[in-house]
Amino acid sequence: MHKTISEKILADHAGKSEVFPDELVEVRIDFAFGNDITAPLAIEAFKRSGAKKVFDRERVCLVPDHFVPNKDIASAVQARMLRDFAKEFDLPYYFEVGRMGVEHALLPEQGLVLPGDVVIGADSHTCTYGALGAFATGVGSTDLAATMITGRLWFKTPHSMKFIYRGKLRPWVGGKDIILYTIGRIGVDGARYRAMEFEGEVIDSLPMADRFSMCNMAIEAGAKVGLIAPDAITEQYVNVRAKRPYKFYRSDPGATYEAVHEWDLSALEPVVALPHSPENVKQVTEIPKTPIDQVVIGSCTNGRLEDLRLAAQVLKGKKVARGVRCLVIPATQLVYMEAMEEGLIETFIEAEAAVSTPTCGPCLGGHMGILAPGESAVATTNRNFVGRMGHVESKVYLSNPAVAAASAVLGRIAHPEEVLS
Amino acid sequence: MKIKGKTWKFGNDIDTDAIIPARYLNTTDPAALASHCMEDADAQFASTVKPGDIIAAGKNFGCGSSREHAPIAIKASGVSCVVAQSFARIFYRNALNMGLPILECPEGADRIQTGDELEIDLDSGVIENLTRKEKYTAQAIPPFMQKLIKAGGLMEYVREQMSGQE
Q: Contact, A67 vs A79, CB < 8 A?
């Protein structure tokens, strides 16, 4: 039988010769992790169960990243639960403030999640690692607790949808624009329970950072996983980082897809998702002049070095508009260091942006950039639900890093060419 | 098992930030989470919801974050069941894993309005709308998940496996 990449990975991890869509399978988990919001519930469930050890201390990982550096006393107590658990079970992959990063940028960078893996994370954006050709999906805290004990978890084998992208991308258009465009076309439940596979000549030449941005937001279309078949670009990224052996899987020609979408992106301009849904997508050139109060450049979607380079290209020699706060948050300590060595941090500070230590902070309205009633932000993050970044009457516009930087300079939503021309 | 209660109706794509905003996720205490349940969708909900009440909603209920605090907040607020046209997949898993009954019922989700009194038979999936004198049938919960529910949720299932190994 001709199989998709998802079916092949699940079959191998279930110890079966093949699996079929809708089939329930119990699979071996290669890597499981949680953060300072989701892991405390998992740790409580783990303790209540009476478990005495984790299934494999090198495959259970804790990353405090959402409300750290601790935003208040209650958050400090939650973060301490992770620290104590990591100490008790001698977990080598616990990432303290100062050594950490936003989990979905950090784990691939550290070579801890790899092609061919089944990865579960108690965080919905775990689907990011599909960019490496891993079957990676977000689960809840109870699922994480069960996995920490048994190293196994059940899944319903998803149906697959194929997205083929043709043409040549215009300047300032990248992975973020492609995924927002896709969500705009199919809606926030357009891939509910499905595996999304991204391919075509646009993907063939797309850098890893853009691939991560795309797969990161597969959940925003309701998908279980978003996958890109590993290739030479993947190999180049992974082989210098991998902490374990890995395996490349590809879909067979003739595999079964529930739907195939084929789009030419040659005419696509940078896009923005307007409040209050990631499916509310318009090209920047189509929307009226929209004043803003804040810009956030960072997150698991767009906080990588390549993203900061784009933002710096636009901000170089410019100033953030009066009345606008521009927050730049490198996603990991390594990204921060490399951005500093390249002079990007200096560019941001000279532009009068505020640079923060890695944190998810403002993306989910946690801390480090909360919006007041009536305020608007352009953010390179992944969700613009009601109240996502602060007050219920605030607004979030999602964009790529270059559009966010241009918007910071002009104080309104802007195309990068408006700043650079 | 039968459930009876008054309905709170919500729209499509009710996300986990609407169910429990992230600003309250610095605790795992069910009562504290319940006191902010649905706050950004309906600020009156948490203070007026009664034990046994039912939530009805449109498509893709629970989309967004993986936070299990969402079904915890709903359950701890006293809600006995969520009936929706469809559920986001992580929310669906989380609800079953922690024992919050949820039913997919496109017809019912469409017809039911705020204030309607419902009687739900969880075993058969039949929803009786006592206010409108209508009956809807929800999709049956798959056998594997019924097994999980019968075991008392995923952790009980795991505990059974652990004791089997000793």
A: yes
Pick from A388, A389, A314, A387: nearest CA to A353: A314
Lookup result for tokens 């492609």: A178
Q: How far is CA A273 from the centre of its chain?
A: 16
Number of domains in chain A: 2
User: Which B-chain residues 120-139 have CB contacts (< 8 A) with chain A?
Assistant: none
Give the DSSP per-residue string, B7-76: EEE--S--BHHHHS-GGGTT---HHHHHTTTTTTT-TTHHHH--TT-EEEE-SSBTBS---THHHHHHHH
**Quick count: other Cβ atoms within 10 Å of Cβ B24?**
16
Boundary residue ending a domain (A262, A289, A305): A262
List the strands of the sheet with A225-227, edge to edge: A225-227, A195-199, A160-166, A259-264
Q: Which of A71, A75, A124 sits opposite B64 (nearest CB)?
A: A124
CA A42 to chain centre: 22
The two tokens of residue A165 are: 């992208």
Cis geometry, peptide bond prior to residue A207 (ω within 30 degrees of 0): no
A163 and A302 both lie in a single domain: no
Pair A347, A293 in one domain: yes
A415 and A312 belong to one structural domain: yes
- Rg of chain B over Cα atoms, rounded to whole angstroms, equals 16
CB pair distance less than 8 Å for B98 and A142: yes
Please give the residue of chain A at the shortest CA–CA distance from B15.
A385
Facing A385 at nearest CB: one of B15, B66, B144? B15
| Triad A338, A339, A344: Cα angle to 5° | 150
CA distance A119 to A231: 20
Of A262, A279, A305, the residue that ends a domain is A262
Cβ density class A209-221: b for 16+ within 10 Å, e for less: bbbbbbbbbbbbb
The answer to whether the predicted template modeling score (pTM) of the entire model surpasses 0.90 is: yes
Phi, psi of A159, rounded to the nearest 5 degrees: -70, 155
Q: Which residue has the tokens 């996502």?
A: A388
**Residue range of the domain that includes A219:** 5-262
Question: What is the Cα A265 distance to its own chain's centre?
Answer: 22
Q: What pLDDT tens digit does each residue of chain B (166 aa) get?
A: 889 999 999 999 999 999 999 999 999 999 999 999 999 999 999 999 999 999 999 999 999 999 999 999 999 999 999 999 999 999 999 998 988 889 999 999 999 999 999 999 988 899 999 999 999 999 877 777 777 777 777 888 888 877 765 4
CB contact under 8 A, A364 and B17: yes
Of A72, A146, A392, the CB nearest to B154: A146
Q: Verify cis geometry, omega within 30 degrees of 0, for the bond prior to A261.
A: no
Q: Using the 8-state DSSP alphabet, how is residue A206 labeled?
A: -
Residue A330 is part of a domain; what is its CATH number?
3.30.499.10
Q: Does residue A288 have a cis peptide bond before it, meaning omega lies within 30 degrees of 0? A: no
CA–CA separation, A416 vs A405, rounded Å? 8
Does residue A378 come out as left (phi exceeding 0), alpha (psi in the -120 to 50 range) or beta? beta
- Written as six digits, the tokens of A181 are 């465009």
